[in-house]
Design goal:
About 85% of the residues lie in helices and about 0% in strands. The protein is mainly alpha-helical.
């Protein structure tokens, strides 16, 4: 009778070990699936990061161009050019040529 009881305990232990092994395998498979999805998501975020960094560089270049244009528009050279072209102003010692009518 003791041998029969020992055999039942041994079968119960084996069944418990199999169940634990199956649960561990299920957990490992789920972890592998989640890690793959995280890798894909990480790759997507990296591409977004690269695009945003490129946009930042483009905007910095654009901001520098705007700054340069602003400096030019406030310069004496631009004001003089505007006065000559739009208003027809000249210096006192400038020689003016007019077309014959």
């Amino acid at each position: 009778m003791a041998a029969k009881k020992r055999k039942q305990l041994s079968m119960g232990n084996r069944l418990g070990m199999y169940l634990i092994s199956v649960i561990v395998m299920i957990l490992l498979v789920s972890l592998l699936v989640q890690s793959q999805s995280l890798r894909a998501q990480n790759a997507e975020y990296e591409s977004q990061k690269a695009e945003l960094e490129q946009e930042i560089q483009d905007e910095e270049v654009r901001a520098q161009e705007i700054e340069d244009l602003s400096e030019y528009l406030n310069s004496d050279e631009y004001i003089e050019k505007l006065a000559r072209e739009k208003l027809g102003l000249v210096y006192e010692d400038d020689v003016i040529y007019r077309a014959a009518e």
